Amino acid sequence: MRILFVHPNYRSGGAEIAGTWPPAWVAYLTGHLRTAGFDDVHFIDAMTNDISDEDLAHQIEALHPDVVGVTAITPSIYRAEEVLRIASEVAPHAVRVMGGVHATFMFKQVLSEAPWIDVIVRGEGEEICTELMLAIEDGRWPKERHKIKGLAFRDGDEIVATAAASTVKDLSAIKPDWTVLEWEKYIYIPLGTRVAIPNLARGCPFTCSFCSQWKFWRDYRVRDPKDVVDEIEDLVDNHGVGFFILADEEPTINKKKFVAFCQELIDRGLPKRVKWGINTRVTDIYRDKDLLKFYRKAGLVHVSLGTEAAAQMKLDIFNKETKVDENKTAIRLLREADILVEAQFIVGLDNETPETLEETYQMAWDWQPDLANWSMYTPWPFTPLFQELKDQVEIYDFSKYNFVTPIMKPAAMERGELLDGVMNNYRRFYSKKALFHYPWRGTGFRRRYLLGCLYAFLKAGFQRTFYDLGKAGYWGPQTKNSVDFHFDETRQLAEAQLEDWEASADKAARAAERRAAVKAQMKDRSAQRTQDFKMPNGAEVRACGGSDQQMEDV
């Protein structure tokens, strides 16, 4: 059976300005499928190779696949749907499969707007996808599709979701096939070397209201550090990788495993051959301040901190559980350990103003991270914060949900003014860094890395790809009132998706009412017990310590 995976051709001028990123998802899926005996697996990276729809159609037709599979994050969803529409025309007998975080939670939306999709894999893909492929190969598809957990599909006019599959419990069984990728095409611009995105753990125990990671992976699991380093050693030895970023939202959560991972890298001499970066939380930097130089010894050179917002009020909205002053100290600790630090700011909420944008710039310059990034608040449609703010959401063109396009319109600003304010922050921060810091601060690796980052910014700016400025028609403050983000206003939420949300909201509301009723009932019973019980002399019952206030019964 011939399986074809396609990575959709979607670009936004965001993360890709730093380089060409390898789509790790296909390596993990392909590796698991090969272990199960599938050896005729092909991959087309339409994004990296900038393949047009016409050329993609020719390539799919030439391969004659039995299955065509794609993945999609929210902004790439329409491009992924289009890949499968093309497949329906040139390979009509192939089963068309979609996976990824957007389709997992928005399957009713996806199947409503793209009925040519045969099936959606919901959740962690390796085991579900393998079970699905076995069913297709054995001729059990579509007759027995209701028996396979973790799927969604159309059955006549009805959209069906089977029971959720278990998360992958034995992560040691995950053996990615990195040979499926054309490694000479995946380059990290700041260092001019090949780049990879392996993962140490899956999931996140934190519940930031704007994030989907904790919902998608569900439970937090850490791989054996030796397995991960085996993987990295293979990437370095056999594929020429010189830099990697751990895909985890926060790989430092499990301190013991992260330390073991670093030690394993050191023991194998890998820090001399490969450098790496991570995303993590300010609180972990505080916790590990005495280990930061050890992490640097293991090859960790770049830490991206989710400082998120300058105003503490915003941190509270995001449920980040950090304090503003902690951000500055964490940045200082990293720089003292010779680890480059990038501060991430989220802007563009309803309460954003020119003054708050200026505040984030002033704080960024005061904190002195090596790099700073201002991301537009993007309300993923399957996160708690979206549910809270959905009455303010005006744009349902998910192709623009990319962290660089202002989906939310602040009450006191137009979207063009918001974009201009963010660009002003970038201009000032990096102009000062370029003139007074990068060429003169440090020597050797640090200086080369920072100048490489500056080159990546300048390259994207010159090509007008940074923040999609060319498409939006932004050329400076003089154009802020004429910017056009080209929102497709015909895009709306599907009725099936709205019904699903309403049902979930009703269920949550009923559960909250039940909890409140039980709490009130127990409080009443406690008060009644107090009333019924009298001291022998008729004195009033006193609480511990002599107070007349009883502890609330919960």
Structure in words:
The protein has helices spanning 24-35, 53-63, 77-90, 101-105, 107-113, 125-137, 213-217, 225-239, 255-267, 282-287, 292-297, 312-318, 324-336, 354-367, 384-389, 415-437, 445-462, 469-472, 495-532; strands at residues 3-7, 41-45, 67-71, 95-99, 119-121, 151-155, 158-161, 187-188, 193-196, 201-202, 221-222, 241-245, 275-280, 300-308, 340-347, 371-376. The longest helix is centred in the last third of the chain and has 38 residues, at 495-532. The protein has a seven-stranded mixed beta sheet, sandwiched between helices. It has a seven-stranded mixed beta sheet with strand order 8-9-12-13-14-15-16. The protein has 554 residues and is α/β, with parallel strands linked by helices. 42% of the residues lie in helices and 14% in strands. The protein has 19 helices and 16 strands. This is Magnesium-protoporphyrin IX monomethyl ester anaerobic oxidative cyclase. It comes from Roseovarius rhodophyticola. Residues 514-554 are annotated as: Disordered.
Short description:
Residues 190-417 form the Radical SAM core domain. Its cofactor is [4Fe-4S] cluster. The chain has 554 residues and is α/β, with parallel strands linked by helices.
What distinguishing features does this structure have?
Magnesium-protoporphyrin IX monomethyl ester anaerobic oxidative cyclase, 7-stranded mixed sheet, alpha/beta, disordered C terminus, metal-binding, 19 helices, S-adenosyl-L-methionine, rSAM_horseshoe
